[in-house]
């Protein structure tokens, strides 16, 4: 005889990410004020994004640069920086999951280097430019007048903020769909283009936002005769050694040290080697 079902039994609990998202959404919405301006051509922008917001406040805040907040007297928490922080985490999760599934034969260090190309500032800025985010950003007059709508750092930050806004408004699956069609749509082309970029630039992009200071490179020793010199360079951040590389020129050794550092960043963070921000 089949066991009778208890109609009062609770249903499945929502997942941890969904509960966290709902909590963040409630806090974010409760702090909203009517000071944020309307978005010009919002329908056109949402068509480009491929997503229509239920809570338009999320999109408005994602497009609000701190320069606009400063000159209009809005509260500093109304800029897009908190959404950028959240979007960075969501982007990292989705890209990590994608790389784990698609590159089964790659080791952790290789996956880290691939990820650094997919989520670097230059890649995110190109995505933001394709979506036309610059045209819709709320900037101060001086920021806009000095090329802010095309500035790489501003576009990259806005792209991450939009990801954070989509996550809060629609959940992880909607964020995944957006990232898949805008960032992961042509991974091979992104990696091919990125492979020609120098690792020193990639490392600086990875560290600059958090630490506000660039890594430093120093030749630790030189071997070989004058016609066949070999240089060894270490790269440090606030005294902490991030990587070491060797080459037949100082430039080559610096590139290899930066490449080594990029592949080790996750481990360095886990074991506490990275300095405090």
Biggest sheet: strand arrangement: 1-2-3
Rg of Cα set: 22 Å
Number of helices: 14
Structural class: mainly alpha
How many structurally independent domains? 2
| Low-pLDDT residue intervals, each spanning 5 or more residues | 1-12, 29-34
Q: How far from one another are the termini? A: 64 Å
Number of strands: 3
In the CATH hierarchy, the third-tier topology of the largest domain is known as Ribonuclease iii, N-terminal Endonuclease Domain, Chain A
H-E order:
HHHHHHHHHHHHHEEEH
Which short descriptors sum up this protein?
single chain; 277 residues; mainly alpha; Ribonuclease iii, N-terminal Endonuclease Domain, Chain A; Double Stranded RNA Binding Domain; 2 domains; 14 helices; disordered N terminus
């Amino acid at each position: 005889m089949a066991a009778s079902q208890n109609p009062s039994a609770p249903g499945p609990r929502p997942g941890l990410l969904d509960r966290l998202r709902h909590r963040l959404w409630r806090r974010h919405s409760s702090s909203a004020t009517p000071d944020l301006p309307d978005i010009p051509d919002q329908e056109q922008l949402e068509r480009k994004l491929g997503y229509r917001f239920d809570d338009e406040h999320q999109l408005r805040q994602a497009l609000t640069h701190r320069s606009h907040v400063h000159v209009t007297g809005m509260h500093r928490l109304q800029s897009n920086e908190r959404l950028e922080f959240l979007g960075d985490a969501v982007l990292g999760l989705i890209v990590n999951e994608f790389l784990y599934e698609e590159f089964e034969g790659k080791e952790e260090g290789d996956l880290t280097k691939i990820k650094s190309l997919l989520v670097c500032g230059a890649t995110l800025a190109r995505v933001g430019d394709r979506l036309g985010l610059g045209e819709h950003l709320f900037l101060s007059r001086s920021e806009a007048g000095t090329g802010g709508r095309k500035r790489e750092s501003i576009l990259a930050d806005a792209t991450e903020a939009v990801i954070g806004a989509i996550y809060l408004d629609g959940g992880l699956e909607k964020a995944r769909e957006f990232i898949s069609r805008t960032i992961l749509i042509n991974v091979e082309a992104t990696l091919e283009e990125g492979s020609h970029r120098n690792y020193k630039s990639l490392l600086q992009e990875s560290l600059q936002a958090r630490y506000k200071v660039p890594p430093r490179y120093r030749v630790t020793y030189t071997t070989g005769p004058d016609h066949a010199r070999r240089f060894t360079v270490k790269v440090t951040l606030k005294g902490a050694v991030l990587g070491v590389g060797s080459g037949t020129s100082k430039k080559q050794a610096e590139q290899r040290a930066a490449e080594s550092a990029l592949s080790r960043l996750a481990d360095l963070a886990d074991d506490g080697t990275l300095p405090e921000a």
